[in-house]
Amino acid sequence: MNERPKVTDLRDGQKRVELGPVKLRVALHRSEGGHGTLVILTGRTEFIEKYDDVVHVALDRGFDVAVFDWRGQGGSTRLLAEPYKGHVDSFDDYLEDVDFVLDVVAEEGLAQPYWMLGHSMGGHIGLRYLAHAPKAFRAALLTAPMVDIAIETTPRWLAEVMAKLAVGLGLGTRYALGQKPFAIERQIYSGNGLTGSEARYQQFVELLRRFPDHVLGGVTYGWLAAAFASIGKLRRPAFAASIRVPVWICQSGADTIVRNDAQDRLIAQLPEAKRFRFEGAKHEILLEDDPWRQQFFDVLGDFLDAAIAKQVDLPLKTETPPENHETNEASVSSPAGG
User: Fold this and answer.
1) CA dist., res. 247 & res. 140, Å (int)
2) Which residues touch 106 (CB under 8 Å, ≥6 apart)?
3) For the chain, which terminal residue's Cβ has fewer other Cβ atoms within 10 angstroms, N or C?
């Protein structure tokens, strides 16, 4: 980028990163360990405050942390006059968001090297970024990455055609079929695809109530078309081979939001990958019951410990997957009664 982003201080260590019309909300946290910086790439609809628990774990292990809201959601610039529509013209714009944030992380003097944690859409963008900037991160831990979208109500090919057609007809900013504006009264535990924990789900709804300006509704045809186009890039034969750093993937066994089979195919193609399968868990491991969450934090702890070991020239604990990736995984047992 030729132009440098403008940085404005906000409250509680947060900053506004501004380049042209785009303003991103970024939170930077410093530790005393100097082991590097964990950069958190959040999922669609999410915002900084959801990741407080993860931030504390990383800080306790001596990592600085950067977490931010993507353009179009959270406390960052909304892209349409109707602010709660989930919209983007191209997922390449999200790559630019990561560029902005890493510039600020470097300018603010957070510790190097950088390590990635990405969830869902953030996991997808993280994979794209590892190919886009191969030397930016040392390794990545991804939870339920959006390698492909699980679509149950419409054949996938038809959904892709409809999205492309709508954009071509100038209807890209309209809600996609079945998508709706945000409404707190529609946030109901029964039938949700995020978590099997009613208590955690209600905590999630309370977070939405606390930050009503940060919530997001359904996606537009433009977002959906951009997502399909970006997913197509992940499918290219040379894509996985271009990622030269270790990638750990936490896969939710009962996920109905993203496709696990697409994750499996990618894992088999990545030069360095390891899968942790959480049998029975839904899409949001961090919103599951405490046993699931603890098992995730155990994996996160191992990842951060491996990151520390890497800095003293010990190998990062990951394995090059053989052709049958099923042998290159760790099973995560179901919690008692789950």
Assistant:
1) 5
2) 112
3) N
